[in-house]
Amino acid sequence: MTIASTTTFPLRFELTPSQAARDEAEREVILSDPGFGKHFTDHMVEIDWTISEGWHDAKVIPYGPLQLDPSAAVLHYAQEIFEGLKAYRHADGSIWTFRPEKNAERLQRSARRLALPELAVDDFVESLRQLVAVDGQWVPSAPETSLYIRPFMIANESFLGVRPSQRVAYYVIASPAGAYFTGGVAPVSIWLSTEYSRAGRGGTGAAKCGGNYAASLLPQQEAYENGCAQVLFLDGETGEHVDELGGMNVFFVHEGGTIVTPRLSGSILEGITRDSIIQLAKDRGLTVEERDVTIAEWREGVASGAITEVFACGTAAVITPISALKSPGEVIGDPSAPAGELTMSLRQELTDIQYGRIPDRHGWLTRLDA
Ligand SMILES: Cc1ncc(COP(=O)(O)O)c(C=O)c1O
C-alpha cells in the first residue's frame, strides 16, 4: 500500500458553529483558573483521510465525543500520533504560536513511523489558525498562561487486522492552560527507572505516539510514589546512557558554561524546546554538545562540581530545574538545591520570545489570529 497523502492544494475548511458554546461569563470563570488539560474550547478541527481520496472534508465543528466503531484500528493496535504546542496572547491582544512548522514536520515523521498518512505542513498550520479563528477568546492573558493545542491523528478503519489503516482522521482540540509554576519556578526531583525502558533500538522512541506514553505510565507511577515529579529513562540497549524524561528532554550545564544534552539517538523525542535552547545557548557564545551522557558522568559530575546545573525542557513547563535524581538506594544532587542561574535565564529568554516581550530574532513566532 502506498501512503500517499499530502494534498497538492490547500484544504478548505467548513465551519459548523457550536450551539452549546459557553458565554463570556462561563469562559471567564474557566480562564481564571484553567489548570491543565481539564477544560476544552467550544470547537475542534477534523480532517478525514482515506486511501482512495487522500485528505479531504476539512472542518471546524462543535467540540464533542467521537463516534468510533468498536473495531476501529486505533483501539486495538494504537495506531495514533499527536503533537502539543501552545498559543500565547501578547500584550496587544494578538495570538501567536511558536515554531508550528517544527511540530508539523515532527507529526510527519511520527506519521511515517506509524504508517499513517502525512499531513502537509501548511495544512497543519492552517488547522491551528482555523481553530483559533473561532475559539481565540479561549486564549488566556494572565502571565505564563496559554492555550495548549493538541493535534492528533487516529486510525479509524473498522477492521480487525494488523495492517495500516486505510481510514484515518486528524483532529485538533485546544485547552486553556494556567501557569505551570504558580509560586515561582520550583526545582524538582526526578526518578531513575532502572527496571523499565521507554524505547528500544528500531522502536518508536523518536515518534510522538500514544504507545510510548502508555509504556511510561507504570514507571511514572513509581516516580510519584517516590516523591518525584517525572521519570528518567535510560537507553534500552546499554542501560547506561541518559535518554529523556517521560515527557521532557534533559540538559546539563558544565562548569564554564558548556551545555550538554543527549544526542538524538533515535530513541528520544526531538523536542522543539530542546532545539530552541540549543540555539539560544549558541547565540550566547556557549558551547553545546549533543552526545551520549552516562549516569556515571552525572553522578561524578555532580560530586566533583563539574556539572553545575541540570534541567528538563518541553512545551508544557518550558524549562524545569532538576535538583536531584533519585533511584533505589541513591540520590544524586540535593533535592533542596535552588534553580541554577543559567537555567533560569534561558527560561526567561525563551518565554520572553514566546510572549512577545523581546524581539523574535529567529522568526520563531507565527501569528494565528490574522
Ligand atoms: C517524551 C518527550 N520528550 C520531549 C518532549 C519535549 O518536546 P517539545 O519541546 O517539542 O515539547 C516531550 C513533549 O512533547 C515529550 O513528550
UniProtKB/TrEMBL annotation:
Gene Ontology MF terms in the entry: transaminase activity
EC numbers: 2.6.1.42
Enzyme category, top tier: transferase
Catalysed reaction, written as an equation: L-valine + 2-oxoglutarate = 3-methyl-2-oxobutanoate + L-glutamate; L-isoleucine + 2-oxoglutarate = (S)-3-methyl-2-oxopentanoate + L-glutamate; L-leucine + 2-oxoglutarate = 4-methyl-2-oxopentanoate + L-glutamate
Gene3D superfamilies in UniProt: 3.30.470.10, D-amino Acid Aminotransferase, subunit A, domain 2 (3.20.10.10)
InterPro entries associated with the record: Aminotrans_IV, Aminotrans_IV_CS, Aminotransferase-like, B_amino_transII, BCAT-like_C, BCAT-like_N, BCAT_family
Keywords recorded for this protein, A-Z: Amino-acid biosynthesis, Aminotransferase, Branched-chain amino acid biosynthesis, Pyridoxal phosphate, Transferase
Cofactor(s) listed: pyridoxal 5'-phosphate
Pfam families named among the record's database cross-references: Aminotran_4
Family: Belongs to the class-IV pyridoxal-phosphate-dependent aminotransferase family.
Protein name: Branched-chain-amino-acid aminotransferase
